[in-house]
Amino acid sequence: MPFDARAFSFSNTSLVVDPYPVYAEIREREPIHHSRMYGGSWLLFSYQDAAALARDPRLTNNRATLPIMALPEHQRGEFDEFVTFLRMWTGFLEGEEHTVRRARMDEAFRVLTPSLVAEVVRGVVNGLIDGWDGRDQVDLVADFARPMPAMVLTTLIGAPQSDHEQLDRWSDDLVYLFGASALTVEDVRRGWAGGRALMAYLRELAADTGGLPHRGLLGELMAQRDGGFGFTAAEACAQCVMMMFAGIEPARHLIGNAMMALHRFPDQRRLLVDAPRLWPAAVEEFLRFDPPVQYIGRLAAESFTFRGHDFEKGQPVLPFIGSANRDPDQFTDPDVLDIRRRPRHLSLGGGAHRCIGAGVVRIQTAVALRTLLDRVPDIAVREDPPPKWNAYFGFHGLESLTVSTSHVERRTPRR
Ligand code: HEM
Question: Which of 355, 364, 395, 398 to mutate to test the pocket of ligand 1 (most atoms within 8 A of CB)?
Answer without folding.
Answer: 355
